[in-house]
Automatic annotation (TrEMBL):
PROSITE patterns: PROKAR_LIPOPROTEIN. This is Lipoprotein. Keywords: Hydrolase, Lipoprotein, Signal. SUPFAM superfamilies: Sortase.
């Protein structure tokens, strides 16, 4: 398993990412082009190994099934997100039982590279989304990903950024890293009509694993 790379995307645009941003009943599609991980068939399982920069052993590939963030009371199943028909990244569906989603063309949590999880800040008439309080996270807060093979990957928050969508830091979110990392993305900031103007991005690094 290799980390995400611009080279793997060819001429893919490095634009902004819209995730969970609509205040109405429908959500916009993400407007960034598909970003695929080299050597990934998208199945969510397969061999991999490596050692992260902080000496925590990287895990092999296994799809995440649940995400827990104790500091903001998040405990959500993870659905798999692929590509929309126009080649953009999917977002989770608008439902009363809101769930976050893992982008299946990114590394799985615990693998070397940036694993990407998307969630809504609001879900139309249903109210708050699963990532409503994402911007409240602080450095050192725990994020736990439970994986299909029964293992867990625990991350610690490095930083939280709120950025204008027009200035979305695609290279920082999707670019190569030499250790297992996690990206959580939703929307935030003021609304322009029914759309939020900003993205909230949580950057986290692997702290520990368990079989």
């Amino acid at each position: 398993m290799t980390p995400l790379s611009r080279r793997a995307f060819g001429t893919a645009a490095l634009g902004s990412l819209l995730v969970g941003c609509s205040g109405g009943a429908a959500e916009p599609a993400a407007d960034t082009r598909a970003r695929r991980t080299r050597g990934t068939g998208g199945s969510g399982d397969g061999p991999s190994s490596g050692t992260s920069a902080n000496s925590v052993r990287a895990l092999g590939r296994s799809a995440p099934v649940r995400l827990l963030i104790p500091a903001i009371a998040v405990d959500t199943p993870l659905i798999r997100l692929g590509l929309a028909k126009d080649g953009t990244v999917e977002v989770p569906p608008i439902t009363a039982d809101d769930r976050a989603g893992w982008y299946l063309h990114s590394p799985t949590p615990g693998e070397v590279g940036p694993s990407v999880v998307l969630g809504h800040v609001t879900v139309g008439n249903y109210g708050d989304g699963v990532f409503r309080r994402l911007a409240e996270l602080r450095r050192g807060d725990r994020i736990v990903a439970r994986r299909k093979d029964g293992s867990t990957a625990e991350f610690a928050v490095d930083r939280v950024r709120t950025v204008a969508k027009a200035e979305f830091p695609a290279e920082q979110v999707y670019g190569d890293v030499d250790r297992p990392e996690l990206r959580l993305i939703t929307c935030g900031g003021p609304r322009d009509g029914q759309e939020y103007r900003d993205n909230v991005i949580v950057f986290a690094a692997l702290r520990s694993t368990s079989p």
